[in-house]
Design goal:
There is one protein chain. It is built from five helices and no strands. By secondary structure, the protein is mainly α. The protein has one domain. The longest helix has 26 residues. It is globular and about 50 Å long. The two termini are 33 Å apart.
């Protein structure tokens, strides 16, 4: 699913570039989506790192899948900036597949992190920031019970 998704996203951007007709106004309008998209993508990657538990800081306080939202903002910003309305034909399936990827990732995160991820998912919206962020001092493991029973990984362990 990753390769077809990446090809569709790249095709959408390339189609916008090939068919676009940019103007100063369209570039400014596109920047209203491109700049937040870039900042959200960078913040998402920075906050995620190599997680050993559910990530609940940075943009992950606001949404469960900020990186996927960032990709969609970047695509839409490119289409607007270049006035490449024909590329919307590829954007719509790209958005649908992106949501499917996020749902598949949800399933995998529930398998990996169990109840912790379930609690997090109940507190934080899926892909659109429609509510207030999760409080900084409350991770999903503090809702309804104490700290996570999972012990921290012992980096001194050798196998």
């Amino acid at each position: 699913m990753r390769v077809p998704w990446a090809l569709l996203v790249a095709g959408c951007a390339a189609g916008a570039w090939a068919t676009g007709n940019r103007t100063p106004v369209s570039m400014a309008a596109g920047a209203l989506l491109l700049v937040p998209g870039v900042l959200l993508a960078l913040a998402s990657v920075r906050a995620l790192g190599r997680p050993t538990s559910v990530v609940t800081h940075g943009p992950y306080r606001w949404l469960r899948h900020p990186y996927f939202l960032a990709i969609l903002l970047l695509l839409l910003g490119t289409i607007v900036a270049l006035q490449a309305w024909a590329a919307l034909v590829l954007f719509l399936p790209a958005a649908r597949i992106t949501v499917e990827r996020a749902r598949r990732e949800e399933h995998n995160l529930r398998l990996r992190f169990g109840d912790d991820y379930g609690r997090y998912a109940r507190l934080v919206p899926f892909m659109l920031p429609l509510g207030p962020p999760m409080p900084k001092d409350r991770g999903p493991w503090t809702v309804g019970r104490g700290p996570s029973p999972r012990p921290p990984e012992d980096s001194r362990r050798t196998e």
